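Repro case for the chain-ordering regression, as requested:
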Amino acid sequence: MANSEQANQRLTLMGNQAISRGALEAGMRVAAGYPGTPSSEIIENLAKSADEHGLYVEWSINEKVSLEVAAAASLAGLRSLCAMKQNGVNVASDFLLHLAGSGIRAGMVLVHCDDPGALSSVNEGESRHFARMIELPQLEPGDFQEAKDMTKWAFELSEELGQVVMLRSVTRLSHASGGVVPGPLPEVSGQARFEHNGSLLDPQRGPVTAGPVSVNHPRMQEKLARAVELFEESPFNTYSGPEEPELLVITCSICSLYVKEALVMLGAADRVGVLKLGTTWPLPPKLVQRNLERCERIMVVEEVIPFLEENLKIMAAELAGQIGPKQFMAKREGYLPSTGELNPDLVAAALARALDIEYQERPAGYAAKVASAAQATDTPRELAFCPGCPHRASYWSLKSALALDGRDGFICGDIGCYALGARPSNYGILKTLHAMGSGAGLATGFGQLGRFGMDQPVMAVSGDSTFYHAVIPALINAVHQKSPMSLVIMDNSGTAMTGFQPHPGTQTDAMGHPVPPVDLEGICRALGAEVTVCDPFDLETTRQAAMDMLADQSTAKVLILRQLCALSPERKGKKLYDVQVDPDKCLGGQCGCNRLCTRVFGCPGLAWERETGRAYIDEVICAGCGVCASVCPAGAIIKTERA
Amino acid sequence: MIKQGPRDLVEQVQEAGLCIGCGSCVELCPYFRSHNGKTVVLHDCDLEQGRCHAWCPKAELDLEELSQALWGKPYRFTGVGPHLALTAAKAGPALGEGAFQSGGTVSALLAAALDQGMIQGAVLTGREGLEPLPTLARSLDEIKACAGSKFTAAPTLAAFNRAQAQGAEGLAVVATPCQGAALAQRRLDKVNPDAPTGPAELVVGLFCNWGLDPQGLMRFLGQKVNPETIKAMDIPPPPAGVLTVETTEGTLEIPLDEIRGFIPPACAICPDMTSEWADVSVGMLEGRPGWNTLVVRSEKGRALAEAAADKGWLVLEEMPADMREHLAGAAEAKRARALGAAQEQGLLGGPDEPGPKALRVGPEFWAELSQGKGE
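-- result from build under test --
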């Protein structure tokens, strides 16, 4: 596929595929990452062709370890790549800071994919700030071709600087597709060897350590200075438009496409100059100066926090003596929002305001027309778990257990599909939701508050992959500090939300090779927690197990609710049961049921027939888990085991 | 009858602290459950009318309507309330031995009713440790196994609802006054005519001054005795002022003042000491250990009491006048105290008072009560 296509044939590639291709063209040998939207396809693509290209690719236990795995390859002379989503950089940042101090050897690229608008996140964190904070060069491809080309170049840059290079994508680049002309794939050779017998001060042959800071920190800044020199000449920084425009737009990343489109929409391409920066940190001052001199008014178009804008303003202030004062029209001036995604409409509106052009985003009444058209065909729906999802069954039982317990207990949520439990359509059962592993961490803390009069029991939920990623330390803490935390591990046997990537509990690695799964129960028991394992499809047993956990608040406990994800390769399309509703038994909206299955339980496989006032099974999407048969108070849902 | 839905019930009863945990709303639907003596709401139900609210003894209990429907007269009760007979009673030789509270009259009446074919079974309350455990008894032995007072509010009606849902018919219920009120309301209205729950065949009411919050009592007694060793509990007549707990290790006396805190607030507004809506009501007979007071209220109750006496299940004796007076005085005192408390808390009203109200009385009685208040 994209990984093995020959050079010079124009392909349509997803941004993440283009990044993988660029890495292959750079002769990258080792790739590691932790799954996270919108970054996951980079490692997935590389893993697919690992055998063909002689790569080692892994899904590491978390982002920090993945960065360490990639760094090891670089230190042993192999080009390496590490990929993660924006908040993954937070997890990896401690090592990243120290790695920046020590420097690397073979080219090493950290691809971080931001999610402006939080389309698949519970944050829209801006990971470019790490580049400035940690003093690393930052690249931002502006289209699909650049995603491929800049990735390849990033390895060369990294090697030349002896420093990690950060390359940022965003959801609309990673997940959209565009034209890419691939380059040649190199013959790769070279043996891994870690040279460590030289002097501590020899970056190529000595031990690799973050210190001594008095030596390494100035060295880091020399590398950045060298990066600036290279960025002055970089072909990824381009100017287009009239020589002396009315307005200069400085932009980067996918926003450069929005600017192009907006200028066409406004018919203003001949009035506006566009400086598209591919190297956004550190800024090359000569290039910036040359362009700022073109006109007085500057608009900066970028997503979320004004990173480029602030750095440009600092530079403009420094250059003021030479170029005079500039009028900025950007986020801080209220032209563009500093939360959420941008789009061509928002950019066009900002440009229209700056250029004094009459612009109406949409004809009057358009929004109302769209809404009514949508209502005619679409059922309004909240985000819900899939039909047959084990999480719905788990939460159903946990909800009942907490209600029966009667002490206003609550669940600390965590990151995975099961985070949807914070939404009303999924019982609104999660009362906190933050970072990977934070549910368990918060729960150990809540568990200590009994001494201050808190009598509510606390539970935490975690997925299996999240457990390995960041929950284990919290569980150890709970056991050691005697926190009466009840941890429910919802083990659906894969990193389901991001597309079934393997994790330490699975039997194959990223490349599809067999590996020994670690023993989830064994780990928890070894840590000193009492462990119970249940099938969440067995509602009664699960509820009782949860109630037992809540009743005994003396120690940390683990309840593993194990059931395959309905979309897992093993379960997808395979019904356990044929499920039917007996319309004669169904109580429908009457007192005694009031549509429990469709109104409260809420599996999309159950549907409501208004005419008859009865529930029925939507055969097409029912996953055949049979759980609704246990939910129905009238015994009207009948499940028959499939032969 | 004001019919409202489960959300109203939750607001007016559960959240207002008036739920007594009788179990009337439990096992009718998947939304209410009993756990550790408490009624728990598992999910939100948005029906505008439900049996849960219609039958709850603490939500819009229309005493006037009930009285007219059951006894054909206004709710202006005196003494032990409407009755055909008031006698002393105890179990007769036909019943044999058992761990009865006082005279074993309840067990004797149920045994007779079973024997007569009047009922197919009886829902009563056993105990597991300190936890009251509603049970469906279908034989004499099963009835005798449940003998003895529990002194805690119990979700007996949940077991009744469950048994009916499973197809049981002809059931007697041994009910406290609140449970009796819940059962009586079922005779007035059926919110959902298709559902298989309805009134009981026979209601044997128990005298009750107040119940105790089972979770609170369990926690409290659990610190003093091993719940598994408890054989029986009793509150001997005044001036003893104690709860006696008989265990395999001996008998413990707990001053009533120590357990008054576990009396649910709902008991304070209950005007009924002698189970005024039952077919027959049974309580202790003060001053005569080993005997009960029996109040026969309905024709069905009279037929049962007579048959029970005929067949030797029950021994009846005239109740001395001073005991009648004493009992009447106690019942009236509770009625007056509760109506006063309910009125004070804004929980009592006439038929047209804007709701919600826990209790309603007829227009004349309400005018009288309001006037009394105004003076």
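Ordering looks correct now. The longest helix of chain B spans residues 321-344.
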